[in-house]
Amino acid sequence: MTATSAPARSKVAARGSVPAARRRRRLPFSPWHLVLVPATLVLLFPFAWLLITSVETPAEALHFPPVLTPHVLRFANYPDALASAPFGRFFTNSAIVAVATVLSNLVLCSLAGYAFARFRFLGRTALSR
Amino acid sequence: MTVSHISARRGRPGDVRRKVADSEQFTGWAFVTPAVVIIGLFGAAPIVWSALMSFQRSNLLSPSTPFIGLANYRQMVHDPVVVQAIQHTLIYTALFVPGTMIVGLFLAVAMNRKIRFISVYRTAAYATMAVSTISEAIVFIWLFDPSYGVVNYFLSRIGVPPQQFLNSPSQALYVIVLMTIWGWTGFAVVIYLAALQGVPQTLLEAAAIDGAGPWRTFRRITLPLLSPASLFLAVWLTINALQLFDEVYLSTQGGPLNATTVLVYYLYNQAFQQFNFGYASAIAYFLFLVIIVITVIQFRVARRFTYYRS
């Protein structure tokens, strides 16, 4: 997926009130970065916060003001979490549900779709609407 | 479509082609039956059953389910919590739908260009889509925690006193709005980016040659060409917003003081906690009606604003 309209847009800017050349001299990069960097930080902050908390000690995690940069990386949280519940069973359950859903949908829906496309039968229109 | 229809189209009775039509009857149904059975069993049957239940008093356990006419619907009118739930649902929808669309459109426009790190920005937007609702809710509960939350910390840095957020009746609903806007932004960005790729460069160049500035080009050319995507998003997000449940269930359970009780949450509460299945079914059908009316209005209004390039 590439931004095909990008060149056109910069042309529009060039014909606007501020000449592109002057703007370029003021900023060595596209001004859209000024919008996109803060937006990305906001969008990704919950992920980053999860990641940071995941290597903090319980004391740090419950500390206020929050510890944004943990002093020690406590990777033991991961084996601890895995040991705290039967995750193997959980993953198996998820896999069973996912595989069953995908397979049954693929088989049943392609059967029905084929019939709707290829055959004329009583109730076809009523069912496929 | 009836049998006579088919035979009329296929040829006269007794014709060879008539036999083809007959065998198609059988084969067609053989192909469709498994899907029809499943949809009927798990889709159509509950819909009909809950319609029946909305006229009954039923707790799904005792065998006696007397028909009580419209009493469930009448009870709704006099139930103050239903009135509150409708208000909260409408406030939520009115904030969530335009919020998501504006944020999505803005980010999509910003991301619709070839600049450095663009794939990083786009991935950040899509990433919010990949998060399951439960993780999203847990992270946001954590971020907005009144005592340990990092949001209160950031607010304290700019001199705002600590807020109660999800514990405050006046703020909880708005925290849920923020949470869901964050969760749906990726979806809106994907839809708008796809639509933006379909805006023909020739039109933008023509506008530039005619002396239109960036803003007027956007307002007069890009935005109208995006209107089918906007309609889709508006309808889709509205239906989702009216059915808000997961985030409320996971974060506030409708509280504090019913401040985040929305229609589907109240429905759940009535059905699976109070065991008033008849009443819950009546609420479900009321919500169904509301969704149909709002969707029809959206399509009617959109007819005036939506521009299909064909």
Structure explained in plain terms:
The complex is a heterodimer of chains A (129) and B (310). Chain A has helices at residues 6-15, 20-26, 32-54, 58-61, 77-84, 87-118, 124-128. Chain A is built from 7 helices and no strands. The longest helix of chain A is centred in the C-terminal third of the chain and has 32 residues, at 87-118. Chain A has 129 residues and is mostly helical. Chain A has 2 domains: 30-84, no CATH class; 86-121. The model of chain A is unreliable at 1-16 (pLDDT under 50). Chain B is mostly helical and 310 residues long. Chain B has 2 domains: 2-53, no CATH class; 73-305, MetI-like (MetI-like fold). In chain B, 73% of the residues lie in helices and 0% in strands. Chain B has helices spanning 3-10, 16-53, 71-78, 80-111, 118-130, 133-143, 150-157, 172-197, 201-209, 214-225, 227-242, 246-251, 263-273, 277-305. In chain B, α2 (16-53) crosses α14 (277-305), α9 packs antiparallel against α10 (214-225) and α13 runs antiparallel to α14. The longest helix of chain B is centred in the first third of the chain and has 38 residues, at 16-53. Chain B is globular. The interface between A and B is large, with 56 and 67 residues.
- Overall body shape of chain A: flat
Question: Nearest-angstrom radius of gyration of chain A?
Answer: 27 Å
The CATH superfamily of the largest domain in chain B appears as MetI-like
What is the total number of structural domains of chain A? 2
CATH architecture of the largest domain in chain B: Orthogonal Bundle
The CATH topology of the largest domain in chain B turns out to be MetI-like fold
Give the helix level of chain B as a range of percent. Answer: over 70%
Order of helices and strands of chain B: HHHHHHHHHHHHHH
Number of helices of chain A: 7
Biggest sheet record of chain B: none
Task: Give the count of helical stretches of chain B.
Answer: 14
User: What structural category characterises the helix and strand content of chain B?
Assistant: mainly alpha
Order of helices and strands of chain A: HHHHHHH
